[in-house]
């Protein structure tokens, strides 16, 4: 089968949105509390602020430890690259100039509730997928496709859990 999907160097993205019957301040409080994220993820095991940071501000760093049956266990350092309290939180994984990924939450008030989106861009920096792509370059598009679908499922789970917490 010939895959015609994205290659890693294309910096593929995925975005999932949900509407939450709660005020944006409540949703933001959950998004900004990175300590909650491991309880909402199949992969993320723990998160801790670094360098004395206690919350998201541009330039703050945090360490995340993750686990995946195919990739094993790993740790990454993320750098907050965008933070507009109540609206946007984004971070670059590893090197902000050449990240392995960029993640972004957006909070929008509307219709008496909140629209929450989570977006992720893969690459361009080398990541845990890079060794598999190096070994099987002919399967790169398939590898990227499968990983992006996993990430989409994980984002959907995270947003569902934030929605449950915000609405309870």
From TrEMBL:
<protein>
    <submittedName>
        <fullName>SRPBCC family protein</fullName>
    </submittedName>
</protein>
<dbReference type="InterPro" id="IPR023393">
    <property type="entry name" value="START-like_dom_sf"/>
</dbReference>
<dbReference type="InterPro" id="IPR019587">
    <property type="entry name" value="Polyketide_cyclase/dehydratase"/>
</dbReference>
<dbReference type="Pfam" id="PF10604">
    <property type="entry name" value="Polyketide_cyc2"/>
</dbReference>
């Amino acid at each position: 089968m010939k895959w015609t999907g994205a290659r890693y160097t294309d910096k593929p993205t995925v975005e999932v949105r949900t509407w939450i019957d709660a005020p944006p301040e409540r949703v933001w409080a959950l998004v900004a509390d990175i300590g909650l994220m491991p309880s909402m993820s199949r992969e993320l095991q723990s998160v801790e602020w670094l360098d004395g940071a206690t919350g998201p501000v541009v330039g703050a760093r945090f360490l995340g430890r993750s686990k995946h049956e195919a990739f094993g266990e790993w740790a990454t350092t993320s750098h907050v690259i965008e933070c507009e309290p109540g609206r946007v939180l984004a971070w670059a994984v590893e090197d902000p100039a050449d990240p392995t990924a960029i993640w972004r939450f957006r909070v929008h008030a509307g219709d008496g509730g909140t629209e929450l989106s989570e977006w992720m861009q893969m690459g361009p920096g080398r990541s845990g997928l890079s060794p598999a792509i190096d070994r099987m370059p002919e399967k790169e598009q398939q590898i990227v496709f499968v990983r992006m679908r996993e990430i989409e499922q994980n984002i959907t789970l995270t947003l569902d859990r934030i929605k449950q917490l915000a609405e309870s």
